[in-house]
From TrEMBL:
InterPro entries: CoA-transferase_III_domain, CoA-Trfase_fam_III, CoA-Trfase_III_dom3_sf, CoA-Trfase_III_dom_1_sf. It comes from the Bacteria. This is CoA transferase. Keywords: Transferase. GO terms for molecular function: CoA-transferase activity. It comes from Lampropedia puyangensis. Transmembrane segments: none annotated.
Length: 384
């Protein structure tokens, strides 16, 4: 039996119309939904493209889709038809936020673009996720995560020092763009509290890709030297790198001289900080090749997990390099509630924890829904 209970989350009462697809926009919608917003996702008749991005599949829908569309109720509309556009306008009468990532000019062609609807819906926050923005040398061009990784310089600094540029092994630009879209929506909601007016929020993949270039951009601004690939090592800090052990690599994230001295005592190299080459981070960074060779030789017979545990207990950041399955099954992952289960659905939990208004998980992906929930009650069904 379905039961309704108050939604305790921070965005309860905020109504979001998510007409986006693929990754950045849907990810934004899912984050807002996790924190209590009532999210209606509108998909074209054939569904979001990511339904086909597999294997693996469940009931002919790919895992990729499941990972981005929790806490939404979905319906299908064709905006190329008058009936589809009319339904959209009806929903916008109740919406606080619209998320879209259509190619620039598409919604305008249908007569439902931001400029065309701004006066009709003055309180609406229109969140546009785009590749490059709507103007400029690359304006209105389609954007894809990997292409923006290449164009923004991210690939040039990712990979081994003597290897080829590499794409980061996850859609980092798309995901950060989605998070930037969330930030933009929340900022616009706060501004609306003061002005009573909505506004256009735009999060572009290109801008987001460039924003990830720290500290490489800061280094280039100051030195004029083009940053290079450094493998797993940090360009400014050492040892901040992987070191091989008998049971696999361990990552050392040593950020200051005190941590380095503690590390050296713990692993049996107490005199190493007295070596002029390694007495400061500047020296360790300059002489990193010699230091890494020394550490590799000294730690070759160590156990990665035991070494990392001992270092962490002593206040030195370190970790064994786990695979995805090991990370998701880690006891601390469970403790932090980073795996969510709704029926037979599993997904990653919300990484932001609020003490008074925590995230909530109400709808598994593919939950059907045609209208927003009644605003005066702000309730949700626990029968999911």
């Amino acid at each position: 039996m379905s039961q309704t209970i108050p939604n305790p989350s921070a965005l309860a009462g905020i109504r979001v119309l998510d007409v986006s697809r693929i990754l950045g926009g849907p990810f934004c919608g899912q984050v807002l939904g996790d924190h209590g917003a009532d999210v209606l996702k509108i998909e074209p008749p054939q569904g979001d493209d990511t339904r086909t991005w597999g294997p693996p599949f469940r009931d002919a829908v790919a895992s990729y889709y499941y990972g981005l569309n929790r806490n939404k109720r979905i319906q299908h509309l064709d905006f190329a038809t008058e009936a589809g556009r009319e339904k959209l306008l009806q929903l916008l009468e109740q919406a606080d936020v619209l998320i879209e990532n259509f190619k620039t000019g598409t919604m305008e062609k249908w007569g439902i673009g931001y400029a065309q609807l701004q006066q009709r819906f003055p309180r609406l926050i229109w969140c546009r996720v785009s590749g490059f923005g709507s103007d400029g040398p690359l304006g209105a061009q389609p954007g894809y995560d990997a292409a923006v990784q290449a164009l923004s310089g991210l690939m040039s600094i990712n990979g081994e020092a003597d290897g080829e540029p590499l794409r980061v092994g996850l859609p980092v630009v798309d995901m950060v763009t989605g998070l930037n879209a969330v930030i933009g929506v929340l900022v616009a909601l706060q501004a609306r509290q003061r002005t009573g007016q909505g506004q256009l929020v735009e999060a572009a993949l290109y801008d987001s890709g460039l924003s990830l270039l720290h500290p490489h951009a800061a280094n280039w601004f100051m030195s004029g030297k083009t940053p290079q690939r450094t493998g797993n090592a940090h360009p400014n800090i050492y040892p901040y790198d992987t070191v091989d052990t008998a049971t696999g690599p361990v990552f050392l994230a040593i950020g200051n001289d005190r941590q380095f001295a503690t590390f050296c005592c713990l692993v049996g190299l107490p005199d190493l900080p007295e070596d002029a080459r390694f007495s400061s981070n500047q020296g360790r960074s300059i002489h990193r090749q010699a230091l890494k060779a020394l550490l590799q030789s000294h730690l070759a017979s160590s156990n990665a997990r035991e070494l990392a545990d001992a270092l962490m207990a002593a206040g030195v950041p370190a970790a064994p390099v786990l695979d995805v399955a090991q990370a998701l099954n880690h006891a601390h992952t469970q403790h932090r509630e980073m795996v969510v289960r709704i029926g037979d659905y599993q997904g990653l939990g919300a990484p932001v924890k609020l003490s008074q208004t925590p995230a909530s998980y109400r709808y598994a992906p593919l939950t059907q829904g045609g209208q927003f929930l009644p605003s005066e009650t702000d309730v949700y069904s626990t029968d999911v």
